[in-house]
Amino acid sequence: MATATERFITAEAFDDLPNTHGYELIDGHLRRKSMGAESSWIQVTLGALLVNHVRAGGYGFVFDSECSYDCFPRRPNRVRKPDVSFVRLGRLPDNRIPTGSIRIAPDFVIEVVSPRDKVTVLADKLADYESAYVPLIWIVYPSNRIVQVRTQGAIREFGGRDELTGDPVLPGFRVRVADLFPSAASVETALPSQDGTP
Amino acid sequence: MNVRLRPPPITVEEFEEMGDRAKGYELIDGRLREKGMGAESSEIQCELGFLLKLWLRTNPIGKVYESECMYRCFPDHPDRVRKPDVSFVRTERLPGGRSPRGILEIPPDFAAEVLSPNDKAVELSEKLADYHSAAIPLVWVLNPDLRTVQVRTADGVIREFGADDELTGDPVLPGFRVRVADLFPPPAESPAS
C-alpha cells in the first residue's frame, strides 16, 4: 500500500512517541536509519574510545545512535540521530542531560556509512549538520576504510595509517584510521591474555 | 537444490566486447555495476558537456566525453573500468591526438559526477578514491538536491561550493568559468516568474 495516509509529525510529537528506535524525523516524516552489524561494531568501538577520553578529562557527554537532536532552525520538523555524538560540558542547559531530545547542536558527530545508504540522503544530513554549525564531523566509510573529516569550511579525507584528531573540539583525542575497522588484529587484542593460565 | 553458482568474473576485454550490453554499467572487480541515472542528472550532464564544448570552440585544447566513455587507468585496480558522467582529456595526451575506438587507458584531466537519487554513498566514495589514485587533476561532484558542487583536486583538497559561487576550471581548463546555479535546473519550489 502507498503511504498516502502517513501522518505529519512535529519535532515535539516525535519526542513524545513511545518508540522511535531506528528512526529519524525528516520534514515531519519518519525515516528509517539503515544499520548493519559492521557499522554497529564501528560505532561502539568509536563510542568507547570517545567515552574513555571524554570521561578521563571531564570534557562533556557522549551519546549513541539513539540520541535525538532537534536543532535545525531552518528545518523545524527534523530530528537527527547521529551514529555517535558529543556535547561539550557547559553547553547543555543546567549541564543536565535532557530526558528527551537535545535542542542544541552537538559539537562532534560521527556517521558510519552503511552499504545501502544513499549518497543524496547522506549529503542532506551533512548539510543539516553544517547549517547547525556542528564544528566537527567524521564520516566513516568501512568499505574502503576512509574517514572524511569536516570542520567548518574544510573537508579532508584520511585512510590507512593516518591519525585522526578531535581538533578543534577534542584536540587530545587521537585515533588511527585503521583502528576503527574490524580486523584480525582487533580480535586478537580483544582476547583475554593467556598469561598465567595452566 | 539451493546451489547457485556465481558467474565467473568478467574481464576488461570481455566487457569491451559486450558493446551495447555494457551501456549503463561500469566494470568493478569483474562485476557489472549499474550507473544510476535519472532524467535530471542526464540533463545536468548534457548542460555541463555543452558548456565545456562551447568553451573548447575558442580554446581547442582537448576533448569532452559523455557518460559511456570507458577509462581503465586505476593503478590500485587495473581491472576496473569507470565511466565518469562527463570527462575531458587534453588533446596532447591522446595517442596521435585522437580519441581511441575503445577504452581510454589514460586518466582524464577532468571528471564530473552528477549524483542520482539512488546512488550509494559507499560506491561514490570508492569511485572518488579510484579517481584520486589515478591522480585526476580536477574532479567535480554535482549534487542536484542541494545545488552544490564538491571540487576535488589531485593534492587531496576538497572544497564545496554553493549555488551563488563561481567555479573555475583551473588549472586544467584555464579560463573556464561557470556559476554553480547555471549547472542545475531552477529549484522546483521557486515560484514561476
Descriptive tags:
heterodimer, A: 198 residues, alpha+beta, 4 helices, globular, B: alpha+beta, 3 helices
Could you characterize what this model shows?
The complex is a heterodimer of chains A (198) and B (193). Chain A is of the alpha+beta class and 198 residues long. In chain A, 24% of the residues lie in helices and 26% in strands. Chain A is built from four helices and ten strands, in the order H-E-E-H-E-E-E-H-E-E-E-E-E-H. Chain A has helices at residues 11-16, 37-57, 119-131, 184-190, and strands spanning 23-26, 29-32, 60-63, 84-88, 108-112, 136-141, 146-151, 154-159, 163-166, 170-176. A six-stranded mixed beta sheet of chain A has the order 3-4-5-6-7-8, with helices on one face. Chain A has a two-stranded antiparallel ribbon with strand order 1-2. In chain A, strands 9-10 form a two-stranded antiparallel sheet. In chain A, strand 7 and strand 8 form a beta hairpin. The termini of chain A are far apart. The model of chain A is unreliable at 193-198 (pLDDT under 50). Chain B is of the alpha+beta class. The model of chain B has no long low-confidence stretch (mean pLDDT 93). At the A-B interface, helix 3 and strand 8 of A face helix 3 and strand 8 of B.
Low-confidence runs of at least 5 consecutive residues of chain A: 193-198
Query: For this entry, what is the oligomeric state of its chains?
Result: heterodimer
Mean pLDDT of chain A: 89
Portion in helices of chain A: 10-25%
Q: Show the largest interface.
A: A-B, 22 and 22 residues
- Structural class by secondary-structure content of chain B: alpha+beta
* SS-derived structural category of chain A: alpha+beta
State the distance separating the first and last CA atoms of chain A.
63 Å
Q: Element order, helices and strands of chain A? A: HEEHEEEHEEEEEH
The radius of gyration of chain B is 17 Å
Given the structure, what is the number of helices of chain A? 4
End-to-end gap of chain B: 63 Å
Give the amount of beta strand of chain A, in percent: 25-35%
Query: Which band does the percent of strand residues of chain B land in?
Result: 25-35%
Number of strands of chain B: 10
Lateral strand order in the biggest sheet of chain A = 3-4-5-6-7-8
